[in-house]
Structures are given as C-alpha cells and as structure tokens.
Amino acid sequence: MPTREYSELMIPMLLEHLEGHSRDGGAGGRQVGGPARMPLVLDVGTGEGQVARAVTDGLGWPVLGCDLSWTQVAEARRRGGGPLYLRCSATALALSGSSVDAVVACLLLEHVADLAGVLGELARCCARMAACWW
Length: 134
Ligand SMILES: C[S@@+](CC[C@H](N)C(=O)[O-])C[C@H]1O[C@@H](n2cnc3c(N)ncnc32)[C@H](O)[C@@H]1O
Description:
The protein is α/β, with parallel strands linked by helices. It has four helices and five strands; from the N terminus they run αβαβαββαβ. A five-stranded parallel β-sheet has the order 3-2-1-4-5, sandwiched between helices. β2 (63-67), α3 (70-79) and β3 form a beta-alpha-beta unit. Bound molecules: S-adenosylmethionine. S-adenosylmethionine is lined by residues 45-47, 50-51, 67-69, 72, 89-91, 106-108, 111-112.
C-alpha cells in the first residue's frame, strides 16, 4: 500500500506535472503518423511499480517501468495493472534515443553512484517532456 506521503502529495504532484506538460505542448495528442496517441512514460527505478501504476490509473497513459533489481521487477509484474516492466540499469537504459515522451525517476537518484551517467540516460531517452524526480 502506498504511504500517505505518496498517495496525497507525491503522486498527485507528479500527475499534475505530467498533465501540465502535455497540455503545454508536450506529447499529448501529437500526431504520430496517424491518430493522436497517449504519451509514453518511462518510470526508471520503478521498484514494485507504485508510481507506474499511479500514472496508468490516474492519466490512462502507457507506462514502461524499469529497475535494476529482478526481485523488484518480478514484484511489479506480480502486482499487475497497466504498466510493462523490464530489468535494466538507469545507467544503461535498454531503449533507443528519444523513445519515450516523459521520464520519471522517483526516489532513485540518491541510490545511484553515477549521477551524471543516469541523468544523461534519462535525457537521451526522453523525447518531449521534462524528466522529473525528487
Ligand atoms: C526507493 S526505491 C523507489 C521505487 C519507486 N520509484 C517508488 O517511488 O516507489 C529505489 C529503486 O531504485 C532501484 N535502483 C537502484 N539503483 C538503480 C539503477 N542503477 N538502475 C535502476 N534502478 C535502480 C532499486 O532497485 C529500487 O527499486
């Protein structure tokens, strides 16, 4: 279960931030060779997926969650919901450049030694919206 800090503060702030960027000319509704599509969000260091699930539940956007830990990825998959999960490191994201519309990294950066490497990877994969983390 999410803590109150998550459910009442962090997650609403995140959803507002993503939705705001989308409205302000981010990826929301942009044409990609056909009808408008939902922005794709990458949740790096997803853990058991509570932030990823909150984005799919709250905004209805597709989310890809990744984590270094197989245990966390397995738990996120077990909990289900809309997001898809893969195991990879934030320092070597298994994605092409500019392949997602927004990147979220929640409570991750304090766990990584190579901060510049992680920030570089977040920026490389993010096509449109600001990456956000805290
Ligand atoms: C405090 S948890 C935060 C989980 C989730 N973002 C949340 O807010 O509930 C930090 C997560 O970062 C993951 N992590 C740590 N170093 C990582 C790295 N280099 N690449 C990807 N994930 C990493 C850990 O396995 C852990 O699941």
